[in-house]
Design brief:
Elements lengths: L26 E6 L5 H18 L50 H23 L4 E10 L13 E11 L27 H7 L2 E7 L2 E9 L34 H14 L5 H12 L6 E8 L2 E10 L5 H10 L12 E4 L17 H4 L7 E9 L2 E10 L7 H38 L10 E8 L9 E8 L3 E9 L4 H19 L4 H27 L3 H12 L16 E10 L9 E8 L5 E3 L5 E3 L18 E5 L4 E5 L1 H4 L2 E2 L2 E2 L5 H7 L6 H14 L9 E8 L1
Antiparallel strand pairs: 1-2, 2-3, 3-5, 4-5, 6-7, 6-10, 8-9, 9-10, 11-22, 12-13, 13-14, 14-15, 15-18, 16-17, 16-19, 19-22, 20-21
Helix pairs in contact: 1-2, 2-3, 4-8, 5-8, 8-9, 9-10
């Protein structure tokens, strides 16, 4: 990465200040939170504002063809003869110039430049300032009377000003040449940063105010921000060429390539499915940079798999795929690093082995001609696939195209690697979750049950668990627990608690005794873990000193937060003994106890609701007195609702679902419903309480005497 671009101006004129005077030029502004979607919001704001201003004629005519927004034709020359000529800057004037193709007017290119500048400035503020940002876009007027330099009319609009402010004025704009937080000998993957801004803007700078830092950039309205290059014209493209294939190599120099890579990074960011990443890669390349494209994905010990193929001519796609599957890339082919260039597939001496030796009729718009580029997709030193693309003509690709393909392939490889790591983690969590939860719940004679279990994150093992199982002596035990936290640490406690509860219940221990013994087990385990963590912390004083120096320097320390963290457990545990059927009999005798858990609710057929247990201390905190249990009869028609705090503490703004006995009121509305419908009703109440999805695991168990 090159050196940090120097500041080329000191003040654009009242950045983010209040409008001065009644004839203030048009402007828009927005405040954004510091999150990954802020750059996209900034781009939308800028594009919408410029589209509106262009429609109002505030941006003037196209600097290339003289057309105005709304499809107005180019104006004629001074002589009225319709002959176009070029002005002093080399652009066509309005006289009879060929119209720009749609989307290629200077006002359209201005919108592209402005959106890219806004994206980079907001990304810079979000990543390196970490505060909320304010974005403003306005037409900038310069009053030049009496000032040095070329004189123009007063209040002439000379540029578009994009301003982004954050609230960390002590932090300088990030230097992309020295990325923060390098570790492991690998440079962090950052964008081009202010180098993009420096290449697109007429001038840019930083203005400091009390508690505020504004980075601004001014983009000229006459197309100079596009490197003075008029867009490619439809009448200059080869007749019958596939859209995109006739694009000039110069289009991919300068900000054209940077815009393409910025769009690539934006689309691939956060994609957690490698198939979707491959599909997006093909859609980005075809037909903008290539006539056809293929992505091969490597598997563990398996042959490369063709994840997708794309062709600008849909009628040739099937033939392209068939030809590609006959000649997959071999091991170590193409070589890494770099881009391998081969001759056209129709040439007799076409290079083989790069995954691009395919039938000419399927590969290019011109049968028997064309060339191909192949690039190995490698992330963290491991190959994950191969990218192959075909371009028309036999001319070798320029260095700009080769570099662009290599940069593009690097981003695709990083996205595929991230998707595979997520998939691996999600698979491990699902397998772990299946092992921590029962494969099925026991059917209790005379008692119907309804169950809802929804982990908040499908990619992590949840902290909630449940079980219903049979015990000797015609007893059925049930449990509903919640471990503090989530992920592997919570899974360890779940893996310890549920089997022990099953064992203790089947050994004949009563409800209170089961909780007493589980509490002692958790305390003993916590004591051993704390002793092990203390011994580990004292292993090396030198390492401790080095870590302290790193922390003092503000650098991240691997394992600095690792150590012993006690895990507490809230639990609702009970047993049911079916009662004889006949007369007024039926139902079941229920004995249960709650240890720091949301209390169960008992719904009678007449609609009354009461708590069915007394609150007690969480498990794993202290060696307290014996846990107490409560016993009552679950008569026919009675419904017992057991939930975790994911239900009672469901939030909507500053309110929780159970505020003002909200859960009891919801249960009272379930009179006459069977156990499964009660469970579904309570689940709907939880989800409907707020528009946002639940941020905690959701588990509830309904037991209803028949």
């Amino acid at each position: 990465m090159g050196p940090f671009p120097i500041q080329r101006a000191t003040d654009p004129g009242n950045p983010l200040g209040e409008p001065q005077g009644a004839d203030t030029p048009p402007s828009v502004r927005i405040s954004l939170e510091s999150d990954p979607v802020a750059p996209a919001e900034a781009r939308r704001l800028v594009r919408a504002a410029l589209a509106e201003w262009a429609a109002l004629g505030l941006l003037g005519a196209c600097a290339f063809c003289g057309a105005r927004a709304g499809g107005e034709p180019p104006t004629r020359g001074p002589a009225g003869d319709g002959d176009g000529h070029r002005d002093g800057d080399g652009h066509r004037d309005g006289g009879g110039a060929a119209a720009c193709p749609p989307g290629a007017h200077s006002t359209d290119l201005l919108a592209d430049d402005a959106a890219l500048v806004a994206d980079e400035l907001v990304t810079n503020a979000v990543v390196h300032a970490g505060t909320s940002v304010e974005v403003r876009c306005r037409l900038h007027e310069r009053v030049t009377a009496g000032t040095p330099g070329p004189q123009v009319a007063d209040e002439e609009r000379v540029g578009l000003l994009v301003e982004v402010s954050d609230h960390h004025p002590t932090r300088a704009p990030a230097d992309p040449g020295t990325p923060y937080g390098q570790a492991g000998g690998q440079a962090a993957e950052y964008g081009r940063g202010l180098q993009i801004v420096a290449s697109l803007a007429e001038c840019w700078g930083v203005t400091y105010r009390t508690g505020l830092k504004t980075v601004w950039a001014r983009i000229p309205l006459d197309g100079a921000g596009t490197l003075g290059r008029p867009p490619a014209r439809a009448d200059e493209e080869a007749a019958g060429a596939v859209r995109g294939s006739g694009r000039d190599e110069a289009d991919w120099r300068g900000h054209g390539a940077l815009s393409f890579l910025a769009e690539t990074s934006d689309l691939l960011a956060g994609q957690l499915d490698e198939e979707l990443v491959a599909a997006l890669a093909g859609q980005l390349l075809v037909p903008r940079l290539a006539d056809w494209c293929a992505v091969w994905l490597d598997g563990a010990g398996a042959a490369p798999r063709l994840a997708g193929a794309w062709h600008a001519d849909e009628t040739r796609l099937d033939a392209l795929r068939a030809a590609l599957e006959k000649s997959p890339p071999g091991p170590g082919d193409p070589p890494y690093p770099g881009v391998t260039e081969t001759r056209g597939p129709g040439d007799a001496d076409a290079d083989a082995g790069a995954g691009a030796d395919i039938d000419a009729d399927a590969a290019g718009a011109d049968a028997g001609a064309g060339m191909a580029l192949a690039c190995r997709l490698v992330t963290n030193g491991r190959p994950v696939g191969t990218l192959v693309l075909g371009r028309p003509g036999k001319t070798a690709a320029s260095d700009a195209i080769v570099t662009l393909v290599e940069d593009f392939a690097r981003r695709v490889a990083l996205a595929i690697g991230a998707a595979r790591r997520y998939t691996r983690q999600a698979t491990i969590s699902r397998v772990l979750q299946r092992g921590l939860l029962p494969s099925q719940v026991a059917r209790i004679p005379g008692v119907a049950s309804g169950l809802v279990y929804e982990p908040s994150d499908e990619g992590l093992a949840g902290g909630d668990f449940y079980d219903v199982f049979h015990c000797p002596g015609d007893r059925w035990c049930f449990m509903l627990g919640d471990v503090q936290g989530s992920g592997p640490e919570a899974a360890v406690v779940t893996g310890l608690a549920r089997p022990w509860l099953r064992l203790l219940g089947r050994e004949g221990y009563r409800v209170g005794e089961v909780l007493d013994r589980l509490n002692r087990l958790l305390l003993d385990d916590a004591t051993e873990a704390a002793e092990a963590a203390s011994a580990l912390a004292a292993v090396s004083a030198a390492e401790t000193m080095a870590a302290g120096e790193a922390v003092a320097a503000g650098l991240p320390v691997a394992g600095a937060s690792d150590g012993y963290h006690p895990r507490f457990l809230s639990l609702l545990y009970g047993e049911l003994v079916p009662l004889p059927v006949g007369g007024k009999g039926g139902g079941a005798r229920c004995t249960l106890a709650s240890a720091g858990h949301p209390l169960p609710l008992l719904l009678r057929p007449d609609g009354t609701v009461r708590q069915a247990a007394e609150p007690q201390l969480l498990l794993g905190i202290a060696e307290n007195g014996p846990y107490q249990s409560q016993t009552f009869d679950l008569e026919p028609g009675d419904t017992l609702l057991c939930v975790t705090d994911g239900v009672t503490e469901r939030r909507s703004g500053g309110r929780m679902l159970d505020d003002g006995d909200g859960l009891a009121q919801a249960l009272a509305s379930c009179v006459g419903l069977n156990a499964e419908r009660v469970a579904d009703r309570i689940r709907s109440v939880v989800h409907d309480f707020d528009a946002a999805p639940p941020d905690d695991d959701l588990a509830l168990l309904v037991l209803q005497a028949e």
